[in-house]
Amino acid sequence: MSIRLSDEYEEAFGRMLAELDQKPDVACEPMSACWPIIGHEYQGDLLVISQAPNGWEGKLDVHQLKYPEYRNRVVKKARAVAESGICNLATRCPMLWVTDQWKGTRQAPSTGKSSFWRVVRLVVDRLNLGDAERDNWPSALAWSNLYKVSPKEGGNPAKNLKAAQEPAAIALIKRELAELAPRRVLALTGLDWFTPFAEALGLNLVKETGPVIDAYAFDGDTHWLVARHPSRLPKDLTESAFADMVAHAFWRQSA
Q1: How far apart are the C-alpha atoms of 239 and 245, rounded to whole Å?
Q2: pLDDT, mean of residues 19-48
């Protein structure tokens, strides 16, 4: 099943970019914008949310976003990459970019060296959504970011860039939830990053004190887990144990 986000979502994405131009303290370094990516086998089982893209396709100049033609090109590029994949093949699952780049290429770093994607792969396996030994395991996922715009060369957005896009970013997450209707959401962001979004979404978070899960919530048919970013794990905790704890929390709290 292939899901395409609505034209209303596209308009909201464009408004987010327009608002960035109104913030004079946003850095002028090259940025990139990442549209959510939906695997062709996604059936609402798991939406994974990260903090922000760590470098991405396309490049934008924040101070050119005041021009509607430029802004429209940026939106169309972000959407095209998300729907047709980095390989630009509309018939191929766009989430396979993760396994395409598992060992890295000359143009892109290795996703296999990313603790985020290694843990997500194990979580997919533990939840029986895909076989971690097969290259198509990411196809069952939808993937988004709290903040859609970040430095082109990688790294998280600075405090001022986060603040500039936060209201629009919250509105986009709300639309994603409405259109993707996930039954499980795993926010691998840490509670510090996720709290403004939780408050705006009206989530009644129940805080946890363990080494992996920061909080959980139920919102209608959606089960939320907010977990630490895998790069912040205690040194004595393996990624396999991390995935086990996430899967157990989903199973146990839904029982």
Answers
A1: 10
A2: 89
